[in-house]
Amino acid sequence: MLDVISIPAFNDNYIWLLRTAGDKRCWVVDPGDAQPVQRYLESEGLHLEGILLTHHHADHIGGVMELATKGVTVIGALQDIYRLPPLNVQVTGGDRFQLLGHTLQVLELPGHTLGHVAFVALDHQPPLLFCGDTLFAGGCGRLFEGTAEQMHASLQTIANLPDSTQVYAAHEYTLSNLEFASRVEPNNPQLQQRLQDCRDKRAQNLSTLPSTLLLEKATNPFLRIAQPEVRLALQQYFPDASCKEDADAFRLLRSWKDKA
Ligand code: ZN
Ligand code: FE
Question: What is the pTM of this model?
């Protein structure tokens, strides 16, 4: 059983720390800042064994050089070796490796960046997904490098994971995402409930993460492209655009969110 600890960084980043009870070893995902991680390691007497990187943006890798002292394993995408800090293990989609007694599998998720990967522990109950800036609670990452087709396909890859998968995204963007989502689907009762739950959590300064894939499928419009309500909303917002294909609809929805 892995414990996943959230270490807040910057304004709205989460650095996820993985540990198991009775073990002093731990791993972190996307340490954009070394300081809050070091503080946690010291206060808990933990030893950093490795670092997972989802993509090359500074708010995800900024702390690596400081944290990756001798003996710390840094794992990231082979495709981005020239834009990531030095890696000990270079991975591509489908690769598997061991971490604290569990098997993690690599998913290739181009879109936000071209070399974006995610890590999923499928042998964990429930499965755990570390998806960086691809899927957010209630939303998805911006298209900085990839196409709408790529990002849509990447989100479909995630959607094919088990419904019980816990979604550990890298940012606390949930409230603004759900506010946009409720403009797209004003009559989705689960979405309204989730929006209220997240408002309550944020009012108490609590994290809205992790989410579950089941909840994302019910409320995240970027995973609901095929729903007639979402298509209707797109048709109304973009009366002149054609959105016959799912990828076209995805592109329109992403551009609507970018302007919102
Ligand atoms: Zn990013
Ligand atoms: Fe980010």
Answer: 0.98
